[in-house]
Amino acid sequence: MICGVALFACGLLIVARAAQLQWLQNSFLESRADAQQVATATVVARRGRIFDRNGQPLAVSAPVDSFWAHPDSLDALRPRLPQIAAALGFSAKQLEDKLAKAQGREFVWLKRGLPPSRSRALIDLAAPELRLRREYRRYYPAGEYAGHLVGFADIDENGQEGLELAFDSWLRGRDGRKQVIRDRLGRHVRDIASLEPLQPGRDLHLGLDLRIQYLAYRELREAVERHRARSGSIVVLDVRSGEVLAMASQPSFNPNDRARLDPANYRNRAVLDLLEPGSTIKPLVVAAALESGAWSLHDRIDTGRGFVRVGSKTIRDRTALGVIDFATLLRRSSQVGATQVAMSLEPPRLWGILAGVGLARATESGFPGEAEGSLSNHEYWRPVDQAVMAYGYGLAVTLLQLARAYTVFANLGEVIPVSLVRRDDLPQGVRAISRDTAAAVALLLEEPVGANGTATRAGIPGYRVAGKTGTVEKLGASGYEQDRHTALFVGFAPASNPRLAAAVLIDEPVEHGYFGGEVAAPVFSRVVLGALRVVGAPMDGVRQPVEAAVASR
Questions:
Q1: Which of 342, 377, 348, 344 is nearest to 360 (CA)?
Q2: Which of 75, 209, 288, 351 has the smallest set of CB atoms within 10 Å of its CB?
Q3: C-alpha distances out from residue 293 to 299, 349, 523, 528, Å
Q4: What does the angle CA 260 – CA 142 – CA 498 come to, to the nearest 5 degrees?
Q5: CB 174: neighbour CB atoms within 10 A?
Q6: Helix (H, G, I), strand (E, B) or coil at 390
Q7: Per-residue DSSP letter, 264
């Protein structure tokens, strides 16, 4: 009897509790269930990809998994700490300390950027306190070949260097938000509704040609190693479009190896480092003389006994050349000849040409931190300033500016704006010198590459090459130092119908020579030869002797 009464009473209690839950607390319980099962999730936007001009990937985003937890979940996680720690690559003690130190915070990252293959072990543990966030990690297929130009993004895919930084707002997407249902372990079961639409980042197509970039990187690295140089840089331009087809610097870095990134190697020296251009400026001095109308191609310059005094400074040639023409001035790189020509010009005339081709003025390429350089106004020039500027001292430019300046000869007097991004149409150039002057100087620039020139090693079999060497003493604490040099070569090819311009710099070579013709010119030859084959430029054979060309004008 007593047992029956007890069982009846229990039954009544159960029915009463069921009725309470079903009718009286139904709304409250449903809201609690929804709160536990329905959540707002962030959908991480994929960053835009970067491609070369032919669609080869330079920067892509691969999916990864990141894991986090509430610091106060340590007790709940403790039984599985060894398995979780092993999957994360920690010891159990390290993971316990990490959670303990984060007490009082909203959450703590346990591991970010795990590839899905590695994160599977953590997901299989089915620990509800262990939370998963799907993200993306930036990967650079070209590695260090294009590292200085492309740059890199951080773990949150924010651009930090190079074009990743310059075009960050273009490449960056906008995260979306959605309502989802999760199970009791916190796993995503299904989507309910979209709250904010996902906007993926936009892709970026560069003017860079990865095939030419690889050639430039390889040859520059070998030259820096062979000559035990401090650093080096190279730029290759399409003279018609102004697109940068290759840009490399040494030392380099691999943006995929985050643990070994050295800020000292991030510098894109072709755009950020300033240099005195040395004798590579002499063709512009010749152009200024021809533009003035006071000089013609038939005129001669008397270099005397191989030296000239300007104020207290004595300027010398390596050997006395006597009476020379413009072809010999460039072929033998006469300091005295260039000085005498420059000193005969009104300062505004020389300054106007140097400024007109864009020296000491940022190219507006858009590269972060691009240097401008310096070219003092002609109103402040002393005679000695004008004299040393004739052979490339007293002003500071970037290698990219120098390469752009030489396009004025390749484009019959027009300077084409530089672009790091692929162009679909040819841009409008800005005229800096006349067509006749540009054609005349372009012809003269074949002299240094010919017999008895300073740049015979810049020659390319089957192609006519125009260009000029530079060997610059570097400025130290006590003045210019005769044992520290910058070796330069700047030129274009094919000379008869130019397609490519390139500038090469090897900084402080200490072995196997230091002259621009010994150190930088061979790099130009090998890189431009390969690049001409890539762009399909036809050979243009043997050049016409400059004497015959001048006589025919």
A1: 377
A2: 75
A3: 12, 11, 37, 35
A4: 130
A5: 11
A6: coil
A7: G
**Which long-range CB contacts under 8 A does 511-514 form with residues at least 24 apart?**
511/226, 511/227, 511/228, 512/226, 512/227, 513/227, 514/227, 514/471, 514/485, 514/487
Tokens of 220: 């520059």
Q: Greatest CA separation found in the chain?
A: 138
What are the start-end ranges of the E strands in 4-91?
A: 38-43, 50-51, 57-69
Q: Burial of 172 by CB count in 10 Å (0-12 exposed, 13-18 middle, 19+ buried)?
A: buried
Asked if pLDDT for residue 28 goes beyond 50, the answer is: no
Cα atoms in the Cβ-side hemisphere of radius 13 Å centred on 15: 6
* Contact status, residue 209 vs residue 54, Cβ threshold 8 Å: yes
Omega before residue 494 within 30° of 0, cis: yes
Task: Please tell me whether the peptide bond between 82 and the residue prior to it is cis, using omega within 30 degrees of 0.
Answer: no
Of 310, 274, 235, the closest CA to residue 527 belongs to 235
Indicate whether 421 pLDDT > 60.
yes
Q: Which residues are catalytic?
A: 279
Count of positions (residues) in the chain: 553
Residue labelled with tokens 């809201």: 31
Distance CA 460, CA 330 (A): 19
Q: Contact, 292 vs 349, CB < 8 A?
A: yes
> What are the residue ranges of helices labelled H in 244-346?
269-272, 282-292, 326-331, 335-343
pLDDT per position as a tens digit, 399-408: 999 999 999 9
Q: Which of 184, 182, 152, 147 is nearest to 167 (CA)?
A: 152
Other beta carbons less than 10 A from residue 11's beta carbon: 10
Distance CA 426, CA 473 (A): 38
Tokens for 428?
């409008």
Helix, strand counts (H, E) of the chain? 21, 21
Q: Which helix (H) or strand (E) holds 352?
A: helix 347-356
356-406 pLDDT per residue, tens: 999 999 998 999 999 999 999 999 999 999 999 999 999 999 999 999 999
Q: Report angle CA 266, 271, 277 to the nearest 5 degrees.
A: 125
Our measurement of the distance from residue 4's CA atom to the centroid of its chain's CA atoms, rounded to an integer in Å, reads 88
Question: Can you tell me whether residue 474 is helix, strand or coil?
Answer: strand
- The Cα 326–Cα 424 span in angstroms is 39
CA 195 to chain CA centroid, Å, is 38
Q: Report pTM.
A: 0.85
When pLDDT is cut at 50, 70 and 90, the band that residue 7 belongs to is low
What is the torsional sign of CA 123, 128, 129, 131? positive
pLDDT at 251: 95
Two tokens, residue 281: 């400026």
The encoded tokens of residue 429 equal 């150039």
What's the pLDDT tens digit per position in 79-128?
Answer: 777 777 777 777 777 777 777 776 767 677 777 777 777 777 666 665 66
Which tokens is 323 given?
């009476």
Average pLDDT over residues 39-45: 73
Which of 64, 43, 252 shows the shortest CA–CA distance to 142? 252
